[in-house]
Amino acid sequence: MNNKKYRMASILSNQLEEVRCHAEACLHSTGSVLEIRAGILAMANIPLPPSAKYHYIAAETMIIENSIGNNRKETIGSLQRLSTALNILEKYGCNLTSSSRPKYWRTVKHNNPVFRATVDAIQGGRAVLCLYGYSNQQPDGLSFPDVVVEPDIEKVAAVTLEVMSLRMELDMLIKEAHPHPEFFERMIPSLNQKDDFGPMSDAVAIPSSLRESQPLYMSLSSLSQSPTSAFLPVRTANASTSTSISTRHTANCTICAIFPVAAHCNSCVQWLCTECDKLYHSSAERANHHRTVVTSSKMRKNHSSLPSWHCTHCTRVNSIQDILCEMCERPRLASSGPAKEFPQPFTITEWQCKSCTVVNTGSSILCEVCERPRLATKPPATPTHPLPTPNRPAAPVLGMPGDPDSQWVCQFCTYVNYTPVSVCEMCDLPRPEPAKMPVKLHPPSQVKRVPVLSVKPKDPPMEDPDLRRQKLMREEGLKLIELIRDGEKKGVSPEEVYTGMRISGDSNILPCDWLNAELPHLLDQICAMAASSRAADLKTGLNQNGLSNETGTAEDTGVEEEQPRGGGVTLSRAEAKMAWLSAGGETERAARQSLRDRHAKVKELCSLGFTDKARCQEVLRQNGGEVRGALSLLQRPLMEPFHQRMWSDQPEPPIDINHPDKQRVCRRLLAVYDLPSWGRCELALSLLQERTAPYSLDDVVQAVRESQDRDFIRRVLAKECPICLSDFPHSKMQSLTSCQCSVCCGCFQQHFTIAVRDKHIRDMVCPVCWEPDINDPEHLNSYFSTLDIQLRECLEPEVYDLFHKKLTEQALIKDPKFLWCSHVSFNLIFPFAFVYIGYYVFANHHRGCSNNFITCYTHLY
């Protein structure tokens, strides 16, 4: 016996784990609400105690600590408060598992009134939040640790699933619909106490022995099926036993909780209405279930709990009278349709409009496109021809028997409907069940029974003129769009298509064909009218078709003022075409418009400096009335010298400072010498034009580029040389690094050339102050290193080589270890090997040393 119980518990545990894993996967991947709810329902139906079902949350501890009351009524109220708190905890978990989390998902504030009234008011609420990850205690609430970047989705999904399952079990326990209430009755003894109104008349108590003997687990073969099959309610082993025993069921459907029960399935133990039965058993796995038709006499008429409905967003169980959910305040969705119209699964926060199929956010009541309410059903297809609608039957006379049955009140919007209508005319919800209006009785003597007269159906209403006008406008618009698309393929603009359609007047000829055939002749006609007619004649004359122009009134009077005579004006086809389009296809008005536009363009060109109006007229005709193209042709002769100079092989001519056009000289200075601004160019030009200061252009440009102070520039351009007493610009003065003296380049070169050729190396100092002291070894090296760089650029090559030779000799003479031969040019005597002495002697002998070996040998020793 113990082995059998152990094997049963093992099978149930495996089944629970399989259902749990699939439900967690649905919740983790934001599956549909129906799949998640089916998984939770399957977990609740498994006959295991809460300690075996719930691995994360302390379900038994929470139920025991929060079940307060001495009787059943008080205990049910405390469990209801616990269920509400679990609903809020469920929302916290769903927000964490959602891909789009709230902005402040990391913290839970204690001052939140909903949190303070629900979660914080029960025992164990904060422990569940800690399991979610809110483990960091703050002064004003709970939060995730700073090191945690993302919540543990798998753990949060597992905890959320247990919270949802416990809340569903509590809701079923409160409604007396729990399949295994004995587990809770053991923990809460007050649940065994009955209320004062006593048991139901049609309820039959189930003996405990018979209840224990029922195998309440699924067969082993069912474990190998798909996970969705595990979501079905637990079947009993003996179908006859389950059908013979009266189980707890409500008066309404166990799925939608709205419509009355119409069938009972013995296979899945469900009490279903007609629509839910059709939808639920449309699956191939449940198509062979045996169902029993339930009549109204088989159902309980008196039930302790009212019909309810589940919110598809937060799965809150609400009363049938509530239109909005008590927790999330979202409206109740319409009843499910047939299986072929079952909506595709969306996220919890979205809903699809059944009229226009637009997906709206969960917070919106009306559709964003068609503005139909969320509860509205799909409207019927509108027939091509309006059918005669039956008239509403006349209101019954008060007091007649059977008259109240012709009316029924919608339980959702309280609108009074009539019996032939099965769907509410206001909210489009079906009639849940007949609800009779209270009949107010009057004395028979004061009531006259009048039979309901048959009313002839009204004639079909006439077509609305607005609808007919809209239909006509739509047809014309579609036709115009087709013509425009055809014109774009042929290179015709939409304006031309529209104007051609208006002018042609023949619906059999396409506008594109008419434009290709007639428009060139019409444009030539407009050009001829503009060339041969006067503006005054155009105002009073008739067009060529014999139609008087009544539109050329005030807007055309400016022609005489702007151009008193229009003769001699030759228009191009492009100008005539633009005028024809702007005039709406009227030839006479187009001619006046073209003359007005041509006069305005000529006036604009004259304002730019081109005074030859005949030339302006000609270039405008050549460029089709475009001012930019005409301006380019007018400027081309003026740019011809520039073009010739640019493409010429001759060198660039020097800048003429005395040119009368100062703007031209400044432009050349700015372009050639890249001066910083236009003001610097004018400053350079003014300095160059001074008679008393013969500055060169390059010196002035260099000084102006460095400074904009006129006095400073003059000082820089006129520096006196202390040797020749001439004025030179600063750029042509040179100075040594050893002193502050500066001399001109000519004096600098002449001084050091004479010093190198005719004087000693000690005389190569500043010609003004005779600094520095060459005998000082500290200044000697640094002075000659910088002097070498300056002399390399200004001295001649042979003088520069002589300077290097003297500098080398000066350095060798000061070396005490250097041996010197005064008889040869080699000078150096190598003292380290005797064989080299012969070499030097041989070299000296051939070089003409008169002492030969003796002199060198004497110097050696």
What does this structure look like?
The chain is mostly helical and 861 residues long. Among the domains are: 1-194 and 226-234, Methane Monooxygenase Hydroxylase, Chain G, domain 1; 483-635, no CATH class; 654-717, no CATH class; 730-812, no CATH class; 819-861, no CATH class. It has a 3-stranded antiparallel beta sheet, with no helix packed on it. It has a 3-stranded antiparallel beta sheet with strand order 5-4-6.
Architecture (CATH level 2) name of the domain at 1-194 and 226-234: Up-down Bundle
Helicity, as a percent range: 40-55%
Structural class: mainly alpha
Question: Main sheet?
Answer: 3 strands, antiparallel
CATH topology name of the domain at 1-194 and 226-234 = Methane Monooxygenase Hydroxylase, Chain G, domain 1
**Mass-distribution shape:** flat
Q: What's the tally of helices?
A: 31
Q: Residue-averaged pLDDT, rounded?
A: 71
Our estimate of the beta-strand percent is 5-15%
Spatial extent as radius of gyration? 55 Å
Q: Runs with pLDDT <50, length 5+?
A: 196-249, 297-306, 334-348, 382-403, 434-442, 444-450, 538-567, 830-861
How far apart, in Å, are the first and last alpha carbons?
130 Å
Which CATH class of the domain at 1-194 and 226-234?
A: Mainly Alpha
Give the spatial strand order of the biggest sheet.
1-3-2
Total number of strands:
16
Brief synopsis:
Helices cover 44% and strands 5% of the residues.
Features:
861 residues; Methane Monooxygenase Hydroxylase, Chain G, domain 1; 3-stranded antiparallel β-sheet; 31 helices; 44% helix; disordered C terminus
